[in-house]
## 1
Amino acid sequence: METTDDAPPQLGTIGVVGAGVMGAGVAQNLAQTGHCVLLLDLSAEVLERARAEIGRNVRFHGFFTGQKGGPPAAEVLSRITFTTDYAPFAEADFVVENATEKVDVKQGIYPVLDRVCPPHACFAANTSCISITRIGGWTGRPDRVLGMHFMNPVPLKPVVETIRGFHTSQQTIDTALRFLGQMGKEGIVVNDLPGFVSNRVLMITINEAIWEVMDGVASAENIDRIFVTCFGHKMGPLATGDLIGLDTILYSLQVLQDSYGDPKFRPCPLLVKMVDAGLHGRKSGRGFFDYSDT
């Protein structure tokens, strides 16, 4: 991290934990905006898949955004160090953690980050439901921990729900907003309760749509058509669930149910059955809709 008397510290090297859909998207966005990225996953296979996915997405970025130019895929990938080792995180100025939405998984990561990363580094948890205050308690620097709820696909979404934990300092919030600005994004700051703003509402909506399918109220196609044609949404709740990942929807609902002790977050049995069957949505090729040709 470089500093001068007049300018704020420059966030140079960014650690990204987790190379799944969200982690790869964060790493791609960072590399496209000139950052040096350390992309970590425990699996070399997942890292290789992320490398191929990022290269493919960068090549099609102009097609999806209508923007011409931008660095070529080879240049973007050259800015990313793919690693299964935490040791390079000793150089990280800022870390974005994207592990799966399970408390026990995330809880194992933060003590390691706390030990390896430099004292000035801030940790951003990319979570849709888990309390940021709770995550901060797993570190010795809760004032430097906040939430960043990125949306999928990360490079195409301009806004990030940014969550202030109980101990998160204003300096950390300022650093995070500057960090997002460097990525070409805006952060909307909200306070910490599980689910925050977006998923406390969205998870119930998707879950209720699944209940409607199970109860035979309407087909998945017609439920989504009502949201698209009547409300003007870009996609219906079931297609949104497929995009997020039905396994992630299930884990999020379980976290919300445990956190609030409120039965309104009880996962629909059909959702549980589909996740058990491996129907996780787009990433598995089939959810409420078929993506085998995409």
## 2
Amino acid sequence: MKWIFKTVFLCLALTVFITAGLMTTAMAEPPAGGQATAQAAESPKPSRYLVATYFHNTFRCPTCKTIEAFSAETINSHFAEQLKNGSLVWRAVNVDEPGNAHYVQDYQLYTKHLILSEVRDGKETRWKDLKEIWTTVRNREKFDQYVVSEITDWLKEP
């Protein structure tokens, strides 16, 4: 009987240790593109601008991290001028952080998403879930083409 208590205690201790380790690792990683987010927040915005947001939660798989990194790299490399003049904003948002939970309902989020939205005179007028990030993430060229094409099309509209 004594060995059962030892086994249960060991399993509980191991579970707590692994959970604490995972939480510490997840919280210690800065989001990719964080620097761009800070820069975008400082830029004056025109009356119409686009916002590309990668929504994630605290725990992320390797593919989720790749999608975020690819999104940040693609947007920063192809739209540097738009990021600089404020016509495009790039950001990553953790929906698990206080104050961000409403995004789950606002955009009907159920996993990690790259949402492109248009803001006119301070109000969001439309948005689109760039769902093909999941089917193109294994092909960097297709991923870039897809994201660049979507953003370029939206930027062209008056």
## 3
Amino acid sequence: MVAREQFQVELTALRGQIISLAHETEKMLGKAMEALYNQDIDLANEVIVYDKQLDEKELKINEDAILMIARQQPVATDLRRLIIALRISSDLERMGDNAKNIAKAAIHLGENHGLTIHPALNDMKQTALKMVDLSVKAFEYEDITLARKLAELDDLVDNMYGEVVREMLEETATNPQKIQHIMQMAFSARYIERFADHTTNIGESILYLVKGETLDLNK
């Protein structure tokens, strides 16, 4: 196999690893939120343990990408593809961290806490998961139209987050004895909001790849 063909095979494999990692962050967020709503401490611990595996997979992607740069010395678009592979894998690792932090919040809340988890957190999660799907498709097909749509969904998540925080602050005023529990829910909303922000970072990476421009979709 000639060097160029070998490079394309390795690049395709690298892209597959990134797509797989993205879907795993989806699962982590879903399980973390399930643990939060169902007061499932075992599931929360499972998410925390899995985050370490996700970190190792991110490291493997980084090592593979750096090795390809060093060995193949690609230029132009191929070099940008490897650069965004590094950027996207870093965002995915941080998305996993945010899911892990929600799992930790579930553990802090504990079992039988008697509180109702704010329903908007589930709406935020659903939108964030939709953003992951969109970012994966945008990455897979290098589609800047899909990448730009991430900004619209991120605005929805930001608005929901703002509403949750306002309601949580009101709740602390009327139920000061529950402030620690209420804060854990507010933190969880913040982690989902940050999770969504990282998907827009992925959209920015795709725009950089296709257009060669650095744009901010988090404005």
